[in-house]
# Entry
Amino acid sequence: MKLLIANGHLIDPPAQENTGMSILIEDGRVSAWLRPSDAKPEDCEVFNASGLLVAPGFIDMHVHLREPGQEHKETIASGCAAAVAGGWTSVCPMPNTQPINDNAAITRYIIEQAERAGLANVFPIGAITKSSDGSELSEMGEMKAAGAVAVSDDGRPVPNAGIMRRAMQYARDFDLPVIDHCEDKSLSSGGVMHEGKISLLLGLKGMPALSEDIDAVRDIILAKDTGSHIHIAHVSTKGAVEAVRRAKAEGINVTCEATPHHFTLTDKAVEGYDTNTKMAPPLRSPEHLEAVIEGLRDGTIDAIATDHAPHHADEKALEYDRAPMGITGLETAVGLAFNELVHKGIIDLARLVQLCSTNPAKIFKLHNRGTLAPGSIADITIIDPDLKWTYKNADSRSKSRNSPFDNWEFTGAAVATIVGGRIVYRR
Ligand SMILES: [Zn+2]
Ligand SMILES: [Zn+2]
# Structure
C-alpha cells in the first residue's frame, strides 16, 4: 500500500527544512521526496499535510509502561495508545516492572505485547543489576539480543561506585548505553520535594539538588575511566547540567535528557499539595529550571523525554508524604515543548526535532529512524504548530490520570502519528 503525505513542511535536521514537499511511503518505508512540480504517483492514499509540520517520528527515551505486574496503572497497549496520541512513534520503557526486566524472557514479552497492540514501537531498557538491587550485574548481552536498547536501574540508582564501574565496562562490551537516574539516596532519602525555601515553608522533607549533582559527577568520572556511554536521565539541576556541559567539552561520552515538567514547573507548584507535582527528581527552584532551559537551548541537553509514570488515582489520593512519585506525560509533552520552548523562541523547529527524534535515535542506535530520508522506516509525526487545544486528564488514553497539566491550554499538537507507514493516530 502506498501513502502520500502531501505538501507538508518537512523538518528533517540532517536535510534541513523543506516547504511544500510530499513524502511517498511504500511498504512501510519512505521511498521518495516529491517536489510540488513532480507528478503525483497513482493509486495511493493521500494525507493532506498542507500547513502542517512533517517530522521524523518522535522517540520517547524514558517511559514506564507498568506491564508486566501493575496493569491497573498502565498496560503496554494503553501506554502505546497514549504515546501515539501524543505524537510519539516509539517509546522506551524502563525495567521497573514486576518482575523487573532483568532478563531476555521479559524483554521479549514486552516486545511481543507491543507488537500485539500494534501502535507505537517499543524498545525496552533492561536492568543494570539483577532485580535492580544494585549488587549482581544482569545478563546484558542476552537482553540486547532480545531487543533491549540500553540498561538502567532508573529510580534505584546503583549506590556502589565499584559495581557501577563494572556495569559500565560490561555494558560497553555490548555497546549498550547506561542510563543513569542520578540520585545519591544517602542525601535524598525520605525527601518528597526539592529542598529549599518552599519545602521549609510547606514543612515537607526536601531532596537537595546536590544529591543529583554528586551522582552525576561520580558517573561522569566513571564514564571517562571506562570509556562507556552514559546517558543521564531527567537532568533537573544546574549542577548536573553544568557537569554534562564540562564533560562534553572534555570529550567524555555522555548524553542527557530533560523532561517537560522540569522545563515548565518549579517547586512553587507543590504549594497546593497536589500529589501530581510529586516525582523524582523533584520540581526544582527557578535557577535550576533556567539551567535546564539553557541546556536545551545550547545543545548540552540532547533529548526531551517524558518519564511518563502512571499511578492509579487511589494511590495518588494520599497525603503528599505518602503518595508515590511520578506523573503521566506522553500526551502533554509536545504541547509543553511548543508553549515553553518553541513559541517563546528558545529553540527552533529543527532543534525540536533533534531533541525528540534525531538524537534519541542516535543515542539508542535505532538505525533508519529519526530521519525522513528515502529508505528510512516510515515513522512520522505530523504537527499543527498553531492548533489551540486544552488537555483534559479525563480524556487521556493512559489508564492513569496523574498529570499536573489538567485543563492546561496549549498551542501546538501532534495531529497524526504514522508508525511503519500506517496511520495509527489521527486527531
Ligand atoms: Zn528516574
Ligand atoms: Zn523514570
Notes: The CA atoms of residues 150 and 177 lie 5 Å apart. The radius of gyration is 21 Å.
